[in-house]
Amino acid sequence: MCVFNNIMKKIIYILIMVSFIFCYADVRYDELNKKAKDGDQDAQYSLARLYFTGYGIQKDYNKSFALTKELADKKNPKGIHLLAIHFMLGCGTEQNTAMAIKLFEEASKLGNLNSTIGLANMYLNGYKNLPKDYKKAYILYSEIEKIPLQEIERKGGMKEDVGDVYSNLGVMYLEGLYVDRDVVKAIDLLERSFALGSDIAANNLGSIYYSDKYGVNNYKKSREWFEIAAKQKNKQAIYSLATFYIDGKGVEKDLRKGLEYLYEGAALKSERCIEKIEEIAAGGDSEGELMLGKMYYYGKGYEKDYKKTFEYFNKAEEHGSAEAKFMKGMMYQLGDYVSSDEDKALEYYEGSLNGGYKKALVGIIDIYYTYREDYKRVEELLEKYKGELEKLKDNTTRYMLGSLYAEGNVKQDLEKAKKYLLESAEDGFEYSQLALMYLYAKYMPKQDRNYSKAYYWYLMAKERGDEIEEDDNEFAKNIKKSLTAEEIKRIEKEVSEKIKSNK
Fold first, then answer.
1. Distance of alpha carbon 347 from alpha carbon 132, whole angstroms
2. Which end of the chain has fewer CB atoms at under 10 Å, N or C?
C-alpha cells in the first residue's frame, strides 16, 4: 500500500490540459483573428490555443507557435507558458526540454499558476533531464498553499490542481522529503486535498492508517478512507480493500467480498487486481475460478471469451460452486458458447438452488414464465419461496418480482410491483426504471395512472446512456403527448438535477 504516488500524468495534465480549459470556441474565428492582428494579447493567446488544439479550426502547430512566440516576446505569462509547452512536446519547433523548463520558470515568476504547479510536480518527481529537487518543490508548493483558494480560482486555477498541491506537500511532510517528518501536518494537508475532491489523497490517508510506519495505525480508519477512494474508482484503494477482506486485517476474513473488490478493480484494468484473482484461482479455489469465469464472460479485465468462461465455470463447479452451476445454466439458456437448451438450463438452475444458491430461483422462474408460460407453476414457486425471494435484495430479483406482479399473468399485486421496481430503479437499475414507465402509464387503473412519473422514469433510464428499444421509445412518445410543455420542462429539470446529484 504505497503512499508516495507517481504523479507524472498529473505533470502533463497541469502543464497542458489546464491551459486549454477556458477556450474561446464560441468566438467567431474572423473576429478573433481581427483582434489578434490588432495586437489584442488575449485574442492572440486564444487563437494560439485554438490552433494548438484544433477546436473549431484546422490544427496548425506552426501558426500556434508563431503567435505564442510573439506573446512570449511581450512577456505575456500565459504566452510564455504555452510556448514552453510547444518546446516540451516539440510542436511547431524542435523539442527542447531545457528550454521548456526555463520558460516554465519564467512564467511562474510572472505569476502563471499552472507553470508553478507543473514545475513543483516535476521537481518532486524528476522529469527527463530535470533531476529531483525536493527543496525547489517544497518552496513552490508552500507558496501555492499560502494563496487563498478564491484567489487561485480567480487566477484560473482549478480546485483539483490545488488539491494535488496539498496532497503532494502532505506526502513531503509524511516522508520527510527536505522537511522534517510531521505526520500530523501531512494528514491535515491530505484531508484538505480530499475536501477538494482528490481520490489520491483519500487513498494515501488509507495507506497511512494501515501502515505501522507512521505511528497512527488504525485499520478501521484505514478501511474507511480506502472505501471513500474506492467509490471514486481509485484502483489502488480498491486493491487495498480487497486485501483487507482476503487477509482479515481489522475485519473478519471474507474471500468472496475480497474477490468482489478485485473484480471491480479488474473492470478498471487494474493489473494488480487481475493478477491477484489469477493467483487465487490457480490455487484451485472455486471462488477465484468463478470470478475468472465471470471476467471472461462479461469482458471485465479481459476480452470476452465464452470458451474460457465455460472452462472456468466447469472448474469452479467441480470444486463445489453452486453459483458456477447457475452461470452455466444461464449460458445454456442464452446459447452462449453452448447450444441453447432450456431443459439443460433448468437442470443447472435447480442443481444450483439445491446447492444453496438462492438466486437460482430467478432463472427457474424465468424458464417457467418466459419459455414455458406455465404461470401456475410460477405462482407455486413464488408462494413456496417467498421468504427466500424477499431476502434477495439484488436488482435483478427485484425487477423480476416487480414485473411479475405488474403484468398480471400471475396474481396481480400493483403495490408489491411498485415496491420492488422502485427499490431497484432508485438504485439505478435501468430495466426497473423502464418497467416503472409501463407500471404508471399502463398497468395502474386509469384513475391512478401518473404520466409524469412514467415519463420521469423513462428519462432516468435514457440518461444512463444505454440503448433503449424502439418500442419503449415509442411508448414514451405517447406518454409525452399527454403532458404539457411546463410539465415536460419540470420533469426534465428534475431528472437532470437527480443525475448530477448521483454523480
1. 64
2. C
Which residues are paired to 130 by β-bridges? 127
CB 480 within 8 Å of CB 459: no
223 occurs within a structural domain:
no
Show the CA angle centred on residue 174, arms to residues 172 and 178, nearest 5°. 40
Closest CA to 92 of 59, 116, 43: 59
Which residue type is seen at 190? L
* Amino acid in position 31: E
| One domain, residues 465 and 334 | no
Please determine, for residue 374, whether its predicted confidence score (pLDDT) is greater than 80: yes
Q: If you write DSSP's letter for every residue of 205-225 in order, what string do you get?
A: HHHHHH-STTS---HHHHHHH
Q: What is the average per-residue pLDDT within 477-488?
A: 95
Per DSSP, the three-state class of 203 is: helix
- What is the spatial distance between Cα 136 and Cα 132, in angstroms, rounded to a whole number? 9
Whether 2 and 98 map to the same domain: the answer is yes
At position 130, the amino acid (one-letter code) is L
At 9 the pLDDT is: 41
Co-location of 364 and 425 in the same domain: no
Q: Are 380 and 432 in the same domain?
A: no
pLDDT confidence of residue 53: 86
Tell me how many domains the chain contains. Answer: 3
Residue 238 within any structural domain of the chain: no
Longest dimension (CA), the chain: 85
Contacts of 299 (CB under 8 A, 6+ apart): none
Query: In this structure, how many other beta carbons lie within 10 angstroms of the beta carbon of residue 224?
Result: 15
C-alpha cell at 503: 454523480
With beta carbons less than 8 A apart as the criterion, state whether 7 and 168 touch.
Answer: yes
The neighbour count for residue 383, using CB atoms within 10 Å, is 10
339 HSE (CA, 13 A, CB side)? 2
Residue 24 lies in domain: 1-159+169-177
Question: Which burial class, exposed, middle or buried, applies to 362 when counting CB atoms under 10 A from its CB (0-12, 13-18, 19+)?
Answer: buried
Asked if 352 and 455 sit in the same domain, the reply is: no
Non-local CB neighbours of 118 within 8 Å, separated by 6+ positions: 11, 14, 15, 104
pLDDT tens profile 408-458 = 889 899 999 999 999 999 999 999 999 999 999 999 999 999 999 999 999
Computed on alpha carbons and rounded to an integer, the radius of gyration of the chain in Å comes to 29
Residue 195, Cβ neighbours under 10 Å: how many?
Answer: 12
In a domain, 188, yes or no: no
Query: Cβ distance 202 to 169 under 8 Å?
Result: no
* The model scores a pTM over 0.85: no
Non-local CB neighbours of 306 within 8 Å, separated by 6+ positions:
296, 297, 331, 336, 337
Residue 128 to residue 397: CA distance in whole angstroms? 55
Cα 385 from chain centre: 36
Burial category of 419 from C-beta neighbours within 10 Å (exposed 0-12, middle 13-18, buried 19 and up): middle
DSSP secondary structure string for all residues of 296-358: HHHTSSS---HHHHHHHHHHHHHTT-HHHHHHHHHHHHHTSSSPP-HHHHHHHHHHHHHTT-T
